[in-house]
Every structure is written in structure tokens, then in C-alpha cells.
Amino acid sequence: MIIRTFDAGDHDAVIALWRDVFPEYADASRPQRDPALSIANKMKMQPELFFVGVMDDEVIGTVMCGYDGHRGWVYSLAVAPALQGRGFGSALMRHVEDTLATLGCPKVNLQIMSFKTELRGFYEKLGYRMDEVVSLGKRLA
Global pTM? Predict the structure, then answer.
């Protein structure tokens, strides 16, 4: 797998991958989960921190991150279901961590949906631990 920065030509492949990996993206009652909107928003803010994993000219993985000068955040780590368990997700995470460390980022945060319990073990193997915090959110119009 080659990891590179997202390119506009990856748009449709990324959306297809996300819809396969994140079934909640198909939920019309959650417009904030529109993958096209997520891509458009990321292209406005730190687009250089949106990465795709490519194998044989096919997008097989994605990861986005951001850094605000205080903490780094990881979003949308996805690997094609048929290729999961082969180290591609770990490689994408290492790439993001290395990129954020180069920017001077002291800590990386990520969130997983509480019902996706199988993901917690994956991230714990990479050294992530649950912080004793409560995550609050507010949707802005």
C-alpha cells in the first residue's frame, strides 16, 4: 500500500469505501454523515492532512487528521473490509502519527462510537487508551 495525500480524483472511490465501512453514512436522518460534505469540508481545512492508502491504483484505505496547535485528532480511518486485519489500518495510523509529530503535536485524540466495541481493541493495540473524559457535542446550524 502506498499512502499519499487525497486527490480530487479519489473522491468517488473514497465515498464508496466510506459507505462500505461506515453504514451510518447511508442514514438519511443524519445529514452530518454525508461523505461528500465531509470531503468538501476537509478540503477547506488542512487538506494536506487527508490521506488515502492505494494498492494497484485502487483506494483501499483512508484517514483524516487535524491539528489545532494543542491536540491532534484522527477521523475516518477506513480500510476495505476484504483487506482488514492485514496491517493497512495500523500503517495509516502510523502515517498520521508521524505527520502530526512532525508538526509538533504532543497528543493525538480520536473518538469511536460506543456501539463499535470491536474498534477499541484495534486502537488499544496501537497504544491508545481511554481518557477519563466525557465527550460533549453540539450541532451548529
Answer: 0.91
